[in-house]
Amino acid sequence: MKSKSVERDLSPEKTKAILDGAMQEFLENGYAAARIDKIAVAAGVSKATIYRRFPDKETLFIELVQQLACEKELFNPNHLLSAQGDVASFLKSFANMMLTHVADDPQSLTFLRIIIGESGRFPQLARAFVQNIEKPMLQAMTHYLGSHPELELPDPEVAARAFMGTLIHFVLLRDVLHSGDIVPIERDRLVDQLVKLIIK
Fold it and tell me: Is 136 helix (H, G, I), strand (E, B) or coil?
């Protein structure tokens, strides 16, 4: 039988405190420089409590990626799978939602910068992001486009990759590389013409 202290250690509240503390530490110091002892202080728990749940820093980081996939509307594919109504209107709404949410969510944007910046030394972190966020979103968009035969798309997956890839490229230039002014394009123009490429 578990003791009360162990039960408290395993509580959802402490798990959330650890994840919140880890997010704070990763955002402030990046992945490589992040320290478990600082996460423990921020979470108000012991290092032993953290290691009871997460055997290493990588496991903790991947858990945060999975949390983002569940909690952030930007990374949730369900609105693609349950979309109703006019295709053009939905695609425009989705594109604008994606571009707006990135600009309005500095936490997710900083987290994305960390993943990109650390991917050379820690490719498993980037792979976790792709597996938990990029892949489900791409699959959902492929399914959505494929469920509309009136579009007469010869390859819905290629169309989905072109659509999502264009939006991601815009975000990378504008928000990650701070270079939107070097190769400028109006967001509304980009979205309108991108949708027209899909809906001929």
Answer: helix
